[in-house]
Amino acid sequence: MPYQYEDAILAEASSDASFLFLTVDPAQKQQVIETLKNIPQLVSEQRQLFPDCELLGLVGISIHGWRALFGDKPTPAELTEQPSLKGPLLSVRDIPYDLVLHIRSLRRDATHSLALTLYRAFRQSVTLAQQTDCFKYLDNRDFTGFVDGTENPVDDQRRKVALIDQDSELMGCSYLNLMEFVHNLPKWEAEPLKTQEDTYGRTKADNIEYASADKPLTAHTKRTSLKDENGNSLEILRHSMPFGNVERQGLMFASYSKTPQHFNKMLRSMVEGDDQGNVDHLMAYTQSEGASLFFVPSANFLHRLA
Ligand code: HEM
């Protein structure tokens, strides 16, 4: 299949990624809009410089960015602030970034080159609020030592889960939920293997899912495997990756979906728990300053921006 812009959402896991969180200068919004329109073209050009690197990139716009750029123009249907949550182990608030660039590839130099190209294309009409550079750890494990991404949708289901398929101007667009988690690894590593495995509801070394009846109600995979009222699974397409240095390590959680509501329901189930107060015990070993929701325009949508 020839490359398409939305491969940045749909393609399999990469071994390297960068997330650049940007703030828009409202006085230069026209420059920002012009740059947004050019992003698919700029990604294509950079791919030619790094032909074997599966270089991918896209931009997301938050409600804050949308208002700064387009004022009162109606927002994409489900673009809101990230709803606040408060639980015994974790609280969540909206982090008001305007834009995000999600860039990924098989090589750090390729990722860096595209990040630099896109950032410079904005010609100082944005400022960098935060950059998180990520890398593949072992066989796609989080720093807690567990394989991450196993239950992601596969094949055609990835598109069905991640891209809006209604016949409207939002066709092919997506929503991106981001949340940077910083782990307390000394606390985690002091736990016996059984406690760690119960925390996920999966085995560690060989990554086998527990039988449903054996999963504690506080297991991460129990709290995030949700169904709607018709019994259909709520799905998201995750592209989370580890980041860190020797003092501060964690997971940049990233998920795409045709609606942010699946992520919101999972996060509520993790943070606030069920009627009996069973919250996600993984949150006892990690912390986050908050979350951000972005609308991810298709190449067509970006092209039509005025
Ligand atoms: C499953 C790690 C946060 C949603 C998993 C798995 C791991 C993991 C290791 C099991 C393997 C698999 O990917 O299927 C983490 C870590 C997190 C984190 C380290 C943060 C510190 C989140 C958040 C959400 C989420 C914030 C959504 C709100 C899911 C879902 C699954 C999953 C939907 C698959 C459940 C299943 O069907 O079995 N996660 N995760 N995760 N996680 Fe997370």
Describe the structure.
This protein has one domain (5-304). 29% of the residues lie in helices and 24% in strands. It is built from 10 helices and 11 strands. It has helices at 7-10, 29-49, 63-70, 108-121, 156-162, 185-189, 193-200, 220-224, 261-271, 299-303; strands at 16-24, 56-61, 85-86, 91-92, 99-105, 126-135, 174-183, 237-238, 241-244, 249-257, 286-296. The strands form 3 sheets. Strands 7, 8, 9, 10 and 11 form a 5-stranded antiparallel β-sheet that branches. The two termini are 31 Å apart. The model has no long low-confidence stretch (mean pLDDT 97). The chain binds protoporphyrin IX containing FE. Protoporphyrin IX containing FE binds next to strand 7, helix 8, strand 10 and helix 9.
Quaternary state, please?
single chain
Q: What does the overall shape look like?
A: globular
User: What structural category characterises the helix and strand content?
Assistant: alpha+beta
The total strand number stands at 11
Number of helices: 10
Largest sheet: 5 strands, antiparallel
Return the average pLDDT rounded to an integer: 97
Radius of gyration over C-alpha positions, nearest whole angstrom: 19 Å
What share of the residues lie within helices?
25-40%
Poorly predicted ranges: none
What is the terminal separation in angstroms?
Answer: 31 Å
What's the structural domain tally? 1
| H-E order | HEHEHEEEHEHEHHHEEEHEH
Q: What ligands can be seen in this structure?
A: protoporphyrin IX containing FE
Strand content: 15-25%
Pfam families: Dyp_perox_C, Dyp_perox_N
Domain Dyp-type peroxidase C-terminal: 139-300
Domain Dyp-type peroxidase N-terminal: 8-135
GO cellular component, one term: cytosol
